[in-house]
Amino acid sequence: MSTTKHLIAPSVLAADFARLYDDVQMVNNSEADWFHIDIMDGVFVPNISFGFPVMQAIAKHAAKPLDVHLMIVDPDRYLNVCKESGASIITVHYEACTHLHRTLAAIKELGCRAGVALNPHTPVSLLRDVIQDIDLVCLMSVNPGFGGQKFIERTYAKIQELRVLAAGVNDSLLIEIDGGVTTANAAQLLNVGADVLVAGSFVFNAADPTSTIKTLKDINIT
Ligand code: DX5
Ligand code: ZN
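Above: the input record for the complex with zinc ion. Below: its predicted structure, written as tokens.
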């Protein structure tokens, strides 16, 4: 388990797109660590969110790193533009990469941190031969494509399995949890080994998003 303080990454997918500047400033002025940017293509997932022009507009005002979650087929085609659009972390889906090892190398070559996301049905054991090449694993705790879905309980066990898989091989690996994160599950997620909590609707639909971010940030690992 990581000994450093966990990170909070609000998902801009749940922001008010007509007031995006205000929501970017809210995150800037909060205790959040990263912006989580969900890019969907309508093919890998059954939804289309926004693309690189919108991400560039966010990057222009964002004072914190952009953690980009590519829910797209053939992500290799978009790594360059993703970096140029302001990404610090680029996460691709295991299920979308035929040559994952090569894709991870390409992300690092661009100077970004490399992440791999796993759908709920994908076992963490499939990362065994590439675990030392990954900076961040994003465990999907909902089926990707939409905000506001119910958290899948199996995620706790996957975090523990991933920690065991990475032990001694990649002890600085960041484990990120994406989907259905609220104060009802955040403490347990951190206690079993999560490092980064993504939260979309729980933050942006709250009456006070800034204090909701602070509540998530202030959770102490027991
Ligand atoms: C889902 C996205 C998530 C989403 C999380 O496909 O990857 O980042 O925005 O939203 P909530 O926190 O509402 O489940
Ligand atoms: Zn995401």
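Notes for the reader.
Residues 11, 36, 38, 69, 178, 198 surround zinc ion (ligand 2) (CB under 6 Å).
The chain has a mean pLDDT of 97.
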